[in-house]
Amino acid sequence: MKKTYKIDVQGPPTTWMIKKASRCPKGSPSPYFKSAGVIAITSIYEIAKVKKELDPALKDIPLQNVCSAFSI
């Protein structure tokens, strides 16, 4: 009997992509109160496109909504 497995490989977390785009080594010590870095809107758009392609749950969500989900 042959065993088969299904492995779902997902992309990197959004926080990793944001830190990479902002060239910030780590997040803010006090989120929502102190900024850790700056990121361009074009970078947010590119990250949202990648996340939309890789995550099947985001397939039917408009790209603008995906962008606004993590561009607070």
What can you tell me about this protein's structure?
Residues 12-67 form the Large ribosomal subunit protein uL11 C-terminal domain. The protein is mainly α and 72 residues long. The protein has a domain at 41-72. The protein is built from 3 helices and no strands. The longest helix is centred in the middle third of the chain and has 14 residues, at 41-54. It is extended and about 55 Å long. The termini are far apart. The mean pLDDT is 85.
Topology (SSEs and partners):
Layout: H1 14-22, H2 41-54, H3 63-69
Helix pairs in contact: 1-2, 2-3
Helical proportion, percent range: 40-55%
Q: What is the typical, i.e. mean, pLDDT?
A: 85
Number of E-state strands:
0
Shape: extended
Element string (H = helix, E = strand)? HHH
Q: Approximately how much beta-strand content do the residues carry?
A: under 5%
**In DSSP terms, counting alpha (H) and pi (I) runs of 4 or more, how many helices?**
3
Specify the biggest β-sheet: none
Report low-confidence residues grouped into runs of 5 or more.
none
Radius of gyration: 16 Å
Distance between the termini: 52 Å
**Structural class, from helix and strand content?**
mainly alpha
GO molecular function, one term: structural constituent of ribosome
Protein name: Large ribosomal subunit protein uL11 C-terminal domain-containing protein
GO cellular component, one term: ribosome
Pfam families: Ribosomal_L11
